[in-house]
Amino acid sequence: MSFRSLAVLLLVCTLIVADNNAKWKIVEAQGGPSQRGASRMEVVDGHLILFGGFDECFDINAGCDHVWFNEVWSFDLDDEEWTQASPTSNVGTLPGARAFLGSAKYELKDSIIYFGGVRYNIAFNEITFFGDMWEYFPDDDHFVRRNQLGAVGPSGQVGPGKRAGTALAISGHTLYAVAGIDDQGSFTYRNDVWKYNLRTNVWTILFADRSGNAATTPGVRYLASVVYHEQGNLNELVVYGGNAEPTGSGQQNQDTWRFNIDNAQWTKVNSIPGNTVGRTHGAFALDGHKFIIALGDLNDNSNECPTNEVSGGQLATNGTWVLKLNRNNPQYCHETVKSPPKLKRVAFAQKNNKLFIWGGFDFNCQTSTALWNTEIYSLKLSNLNDC
């Protein structure tokens, strides 16, 4: 065998090994929360901390309604056991039950920041948007309601105001908040970018709502995937997807953008190969300079399962994509690995180079029923092939 042939064979074998290792694995678990979707999950001190979400009714004629949660659950990654917390708060009440809220881990304090969210009935005529911010300390099992000062947003309130689907990311003592949807008028989608000083409680606008044009600015959206990425003197937010206007249409953005925090400039990145419709309600992570998108709902009217309620069609996916960010012209890898279930509205969290998911559902078109997931799955991100 020639040296060239041997080298090619070794390369192929290496790729096969990488693909075989890049698999989702079930994490053994005792106990746990009841079925729900659109919860938020973060990792603090070796525990998965789960908050919020709802058990969705999919048929307005079935006599059921959505069930909303403000429970806090903790999963010990060493003992592999769920425990329901009994939190207290500095104001005597807990955050209201909700879903589609933003969350981010505050590394410097081993706490979690929660912002916004929404709750509504199945008829979609009783809707509550939230604009409150809470900090949860798992070690003390204690919530602190945070003050919000500073700039006034498009809703006329300090900060972003009451809205759902706003994505959060934290670097140091600075929280970043991107886009979302609120109840101003007949539901208004946003594309603004904010920062919040976690030491002074002050909001500042980095990019004004609905400013810019389609060539240089991402369109309005909510439930986008957003990560903070730092490389050398570059500090940026990377934004993918999210639902688009109008409300209830199921339309999704398929684009990816990079927001330079220092000069407030946007740069568009090529879209996921072969993805012409976009996706939301999935998981995402940042591993070094790799932006990972996994699972989620696909907007495809010809293939999705219709439902008789406001959430519309259901088409869960189980693919995982990688965007390499340390190139001058970043490109998405082809779909790299599939998870055991197809899932949307999952809760997810990252610990080092592992991504964890819990909850969410697939949907059975024949029986018009959700196939709820109550397992924890993990994926080792370092095993994903680079582009």
Task: Provide tags for this entry.
mainly beta; five-stranded mixed sheet; 1 helix
Structure description:
- This protein is mainly beta and 387 residues long.
- It has a domain of 109 residues.
- It is 5% helix and 42% strand.
- A hairpin with a 2-residue loop joins strand 29 and strand 30.
- The N terminus is likely disordered.
Instruction: Provide the low-confidence segments as ranges.
Output: 1-20
Number of helical stretches of at least 4 residues: 1
Radius of gyration: 20 Å
| Arrangement of strands in the largest sheet | 8-14-13-10-9
- Please bin the fraction of helical residues: under 10%
Largest sheet: 5 strands, mixed
Shape from CA axes?
globular
Strand content: 35-45%
Distance between the termini: 29 Å
Structural class computed from helices and strand pairing:
mainly beta
Number of strands: 33
**What number is the mean pLDDT?**
89
